[in-house]
Design brief:
The complex is a heterodimer of chains A (213) and B (198).
Chain A (H helix, E strand, L loop, with lengths): L2 H19 L13 H30 L5 H5 L17 E2 L4 E6 L2 E10 L2 H7 L5 E7 L6 H8 L7 E4 L7 E8 L4 E7 L3 E7 L4 H9 L3
Antiparallel strand pairs in A: 1-3, 2-3, 3-4, 4-8, 5-6, 6-7, 7-8
Chain B lengths: L3 H12 L4 H10 L4 H10 L11 H11 L16 H21 L1 H13 L9 H5 L8 H16 L5 H38 L1
Helix pairs in contact in B: 2-3, 5-8, 8-9
The chains are: A alpha+beta (213), B mainly alpha (198).
């Protein structure tokens, strides 16, 4: 228990008892508060309500109108940052766009995360995290070879070539067999995009890939 | 010089067989200075005593009992008993102790946001989205501080209405504190614990 939690009830009890036993002394005529007292009361009330109301209101606004900093990060990289226009039901973006140090051997990668609302993550334990990472690559880049060259296990992941009818691309692979399912896409402007999720369905990942813009 | 209204009142009261001690106490209680009362008492000669007051006189007595002299151009309200000042200071102390609580919810929101911001990509004030009821923590303090300050200032008057108001405020503050504390633990704690474990 904090000091406040101990002392406050003691105050309550002390004042309550004192009020009850001292009732007979309260026989003086009623007087209005002086101007000074009224001013103090008004100032304290405004301070408490305005300061708290402002902070809580600002936090509430920011929480429900998040700034994903897309424009800010777009200005820091030399390539177009792709965003999915389709998100699986119940999923929302729950991170800003941020610069990742290294991805696929390149720097200035951009990452963003998507999941069920945070209030549900904590209590339902049904996290459905999906991470989109993207970076600029060269003309000769091959996503499958890049992943395989970095893989250090006994059972290499399985790649399946797929078609994304609505998203023009040079390469599109679906990777399974590992910890997460991953959709690898290289756009026509040589932006390599990886959409990875341990729990999301293949269908939804492909829909997200197909809706990139 | 003795106030004529005071003098007239004392004479009437003495004429109605009121003991001098009772008259003295009544006047001092409502704010007359003891020195003025004593001087007036020393100057008064009781009106003739009637053995069997008539009904008219008894009615007059009842009316006159209520006509305590209120015109005190040269007097100020007498000093309040020390216990009133003690209670006023206790209310003030309680108001000051409630100040941190009034800002607790806001402080928690700001502090947790600052703690999480270094995480790459962390959205601002996401903690508020996870625990929208965190604002409840501030409610008892926000409500209590102005009310307790009002009680501290008002009770200095020493009037019975101030006593009633202060008692009401105290009970209200206690009930809101207990209720909101219970609700906050019920709504905020499970999510906070789950978030911490997550």
């Amino acid at each position: 228990m904090s000091l406040n939690e101990i002392i406050t009830p003691i105050f309550w009890i002390a004042i309550f008892i004192l009020l009850l036993v001292s009732k007979k002394y309260f026989v003086f005529p009623n007087e209005r508060l002086s101007k000074k007292a009224m001013f103090l009361l008004v100032i304290v009330t405004i301070l408490v309500f305005v300061v708290n109301g402002s902070i809580i209101g600002f936090a509430y606004y920011k929480a429900y109108n998040p700034d994903y900093e897309y424009e800010k990060i777009s200005g820091q990289v030399s390539y177009h940052i792709y965003r999915p226009s389709y998100l699986p039901p119940g999923i929302e973006q729950n991170s800003k766009f941020y610069i990742e140090e290294e991805f696929a051997g390149n720097t200035w990668a951009v990452r963003s995360a998507y999941n069920i609302p945070i209030s549900q993550v904590a209590i339902s334990e049904k996290s459905n995290l999906t991470v989109i990472t993207q970076t600029q690559v060269d003309d000769l880049f091959d996503a499958k070879e890049d992943v395989l060259s970095r893989y250090q296990g006994d059972n290499p992941p399985i790649f399946e070539s797929i078609v994304l009818p609505n998203f023009p691309n040079k390469q599109a692979y679906f990777q399974t067999g590992g910890f997460a399912k991953v959709l690898h896409v290289v756009a026509m402007d040589n932006v390599y995009i990886s959409i990875a999720s341990p729990r999301e369905t293949e269908e939804n990942l492909q829909k997200m890939g197909d809706s990139l813009e | 010089m003795v106030n004529p209204q005071l003098l007239d009142y004392i004479k009437r009261q003495l004429g109605l067989n009121k003991p001098r001690e009772v008259i003295r106490e009544n006047l001092i209680r409502i704010g007359w200075k003891q020195a003025d009362v004593e001087e007036a008492l020393n100057q008064t000669v009781p009106l003739p005593i009637q053995q069997n007051p008539t009904n008219e006189q008894l009615t007059q007595q009842g009316q006159l009992n209520n006509e305590l002299p209120t015109d005190k151009p040269n007097t100020e309200p007498g000093p309040r008993p020390k216990v009133i000042k003690v209670i006023s200071n206790l209310f003030l102390g309680l108001a000051l102790f409630s100040m941190p609580g009034a800002f607790a919810g806001s402080a928690m929101v700001l502090a947790s946001n600052k703690a999480l911001i270094p995480i790459p990509g962390q959205l601002e004030f996401e903690i508020f989205k996870a625990m929208p009821y965190v604002g409840l923590i501030s409610v008892p303090g926000i409500m209590a501080v102005p009310l307790l300050l009002l009680a501290a200032l008002k009770i200095k008057s020493g009037s019975f209405s101030a006593w009633k108001l202060s008692l009401f405020i105290l009970i209200l503050v206690i009930i809101v504190n207990i209720t909101t504390g219970f609700l906050a633990r019920l709504l905020v704690d499970p999510i906070y614990q789950a978030t911490t474990n997550y």
